[in-house]
UniProtKB/TrEMBL annotation:
Signal sequence interval, chain numbering: none
NCBIfam families xrefs: murD
Function: Cell wall formation. Catalyzes the addition of glutamate to the nucleotide precursor UDP-N-acetylmuramoyl-L-alanine (UMA).
Mur ligase C-terminal domain ranges (all copies): 314-426
Keywords, comma-separated and alphabetical: ATP-binding, Cell cycle, Cell division, Cell shape, Cell wall biogenesis/degradation, Cytoplasm, Ligase, Nucleotide-binding, Peptidoglycan synthesis
Organism: Hymenobacter algoricola
Annotated GO MF terms: ligase activity
Name of the featured protein: UDP-N-acetylmuramoylalanine--D-glutamate ligase
PANTHER family: UDP-N-ACETYLMURAMOYLALANINE--D-GLUTAMATE LIGASE
Amino acid sequence: MKIVILGAAESGVGAALLAQAKGHEVFVSDQSPIQPLYKEKLAAAGIRFEEGTHTLEEVLKADEVIKSPGIPEKAPVIQALREQRIPVISEIEFAGRYTKARHICITGTNGKTTTTLLTYHLLKEAGYSVGLAGNVGFSLAEQVMEDRHEFYVIELSSFQLDDTYAFQPWIGVLLNISPDHLDRYNYSLEQYAQAKLRITRSMDSSSWFIYNADDAVIQQEFQAVFCEASQLPFSRHHRPDYHLAAYYTAADRLYTNLAPGLATGGREISVAASPLIGQHNRQNMMAAILCARVAGLSDEQIEQGLGTFRNADHRLQLVAEIDGVHYINDSKATNVEAAWYALDGIHQPIVWIAGGTDKGNDYTSLVPLAQHRVEALICLGVDNEKLKTAFGGAIDHLEETQSMADAVRRAAGLARSGDVVLLSPCCASFDLFKNYEDRGRQFVAAVQGLTEENK
């Protein structure tokens, strides 16, 4: 077949390399400049590519197109393909054709990366042959070329799920659904939810579906989905209205049962060794532990793995303790729900650094938490008026700045021993920073600067 790849970053280049390895004619097209690393990979493999444009005459010769998840449906090149009825699939769909490995696939609005990394860590520490792929930044297609693993743990965004059809997760996990990326889904929460629930599309009776029974949107939208997989709902508390596969019996004890309708088979697992902070991470842990149990890990293997896990940067990451004040980097909290989890999970008094590019946020749900937990708010953004209006009546002390170094210095001046300085922006980063990683790194650097000053 002639395969055209749209987008030449991690997923696109991985798909191109796999397609060529399987004997297809391959052409790669990217409307933006291609990064040197990926250009070198394509050139070394002798794969034709173009950058800075999509040549429609060439693209429309395709028998099948593999699309980058970043390209929206409304893009002219996609519309042209739809008009010609040329199949458009995702890298994940394509890679799944060429491996018999078992896929553990994790999606949700928040917590995907933490849950994916924790699940991968648990299996790897237990000695399993496991790969890490998807939205965490590693191409599944490129790994499938060697296909050395029995399992792949894959983080899937809704964008990656949109163009899957026959791809079959062995375990599918849905953590939560809250408004995000609605511009890609006609500003419809229902359409966004159904994109997430697409993870169940090809599951059968040999599959497992792990989902959050506490999430109201999942409860509502899942009713319309036909799912043959064995269902493993989890909740933070025991609930009589569900046969739960996992729930907490104490702050550091988790009950699990892979046959939740039966009284037998239940086991309690200690999560006391886990370094993860916050109520949302308690949910993430339940999902990861259920994945590990389905995969056959023992309680001892799970408990040992929890204790050695270290989360990705910028996700409730403890940066330092200076004069009794803890500095926590949660720069990945780019929406209201993620910031809510951070404020809810920290029980010490908080000096909160927030702000950035507002995505139509409704801060109402944060106001009661802020009133009780936050001693001071430092607004870090080009335009802070909406934050000031939302929290001005709930937080006694409010300041503005447009510099991370200044924000951290001011926070340090306000915080007392026992307090937490929390960067949980609740907003996108693009007004003052390149991305959330840049924002988080600047926070870490500013905190490290305080450490140097205190020496």
